[in-house]
Write a sequence for this structure.
C-alpha cells in the first residue's frame, strides 16, 4: 500500500477497543499508519498503557479516551474530543458491546435497555457526530462491528440479536445518505471470535458438559460454525483495513460475514 491514503496519517476512533475485536482492529489500523483513539468506559492506568503500547509498536499517535457508550452525550463527546485533538475524524469503527442471555419473559429490563444503548444507539450517536467532520474533510470510512446474529437469531439473546439486526439497518441507511460524500458505511459480521471473554467461558463449559476443551469448543461453542474454528481478531482487523482502503471505495451499505460459513445455510 506504499503511497496510498492508508499510509498518510488518518485518525481512527474504535469504540470498545481495550480488548478483543476492538483492540485487534485498533492494532491493524495502527499498522497502516493511522492515529488511534482507544476507548472504553473504565479509564484505568491499564487502558492508557494499551494506547501507549500501540503508539510504541507502530510508531503512530495513539491515545485513550474514556466514554460511557450507554450515554448519548458521551458518545458524541468522544467524537468531538478526538476531532479536536487530531484535526478531524477519518475512520469510525463502532465495536462497543455487551451481552446478556435469558429467556424473553425473564430478560431484565435494565439489561435490555443497556444492550440496546451500547450495542446499537451508541453507533447512531457516534456516526451522527462523525459525519459532519468527514464531510468537511472530503471523505471517511464508517465500519460497524455487527455479528452473525445480525443475520440470524439464537435463543435467549433477544436484546443482542435485536441490536445487531438494527446495526445492519443503520449501516444501510447511513450508506444511502452519504453515498455522494466519499464516505462509506459497512458492517462486519463475525461468528465466534476467540477473545479473552470467550476464552474465559471455556472452563465453565467444560465443567457443565463434562467435556474436554477441544470437544467443548467444537461441539458446544462452535456448533453452528461449519469450519469448527474460531475467527481471529487479526482476521477482523484485516477486514476493517480493507473496508477503510481505497480498494473498498465502492463497497458501501453492505456487510462482510466472517463466520466460517455459519450463515451460508
Amino acid at each position: 500500500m506504499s503511497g496510498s491514503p492508508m499510509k498518510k496519517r488518518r485518525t481512527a476512533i474504535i469504540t470498545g477497543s481495550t480488548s478483543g475485536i476492538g483492540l485487534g482492529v485498533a492494532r491493524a489500523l495502527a499498522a497502516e499508519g493511522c492515529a488511534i483513539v482507544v476507548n472504553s468506559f473504565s479509564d484505568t492506568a491499564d487502558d492508557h498503557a494499551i494506547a501507549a503500547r500501540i503508539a510504541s509498536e507502530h510508531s503512530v499517535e495513539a491515545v485513550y479516551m474514556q466514554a460511557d457508550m450507554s450515554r448519548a452525550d458521551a458518545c458524541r463527546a468522544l467524537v468531538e474530543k478526538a476531532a479536536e485533538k487530531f484535526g478531524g475524524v477519518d475512520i469510525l469503527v463502532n465495536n462497543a458491546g455487551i451481552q446478556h442471555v435469558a429467556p424473553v419473559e425473564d430478560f431484565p429490563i435494565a439489561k435490555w435497555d443497556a444492550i440496546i444503548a451500547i450495542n446499537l444507539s451508541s453507533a447512531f450517536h457516534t456516526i451522527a457526530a462523525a459525519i459532519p467532520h468527514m464531510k468537511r474533510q472530503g471523505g471517511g470510512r464508517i465500519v460497524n462491528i455487527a455479528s452473525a446474529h445480525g443475520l440470524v437469531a439464537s435463543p435467549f439473546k433477544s436484546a443482542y440479536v435485536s441490536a445487531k439486526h438494527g446495526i445492519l439497518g443503520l449501516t444501510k441507511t447511513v450508506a444511502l445518505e452519504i453515498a455522494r460524500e466519499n464516505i462509506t458505511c459497512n458492517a462486519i459480521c463475525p461468528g465466534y471470535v476467540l477473545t479473552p471473554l470467550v476464552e474465559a467461558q471455556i472452563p465453565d463449559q467444560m465443567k457443565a458438559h463434562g467435556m474436554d476443551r477441544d470437544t467443548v469448543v467444537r461441539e458446544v461453542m462452535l456448533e453452528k460454525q461449519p469450519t469448527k474454528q474460531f475467527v481471529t481478531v487479526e482476521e477482523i482487523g484485516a477486514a476493517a483495513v480493507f473496508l477503510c482502503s481505497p480498494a473498498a471505495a465502492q463497497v458501501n451499505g453492505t456487510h462482510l460475514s466472517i463466520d466460517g460459513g455459519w450463515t451460508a445455510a
Q: What stands out?
A: Confidence is low (pLDDT under 50) at residues 1-7. The chain has two domains: 7-191+232-258, 194-230. The longest helix spans residues 109-137.
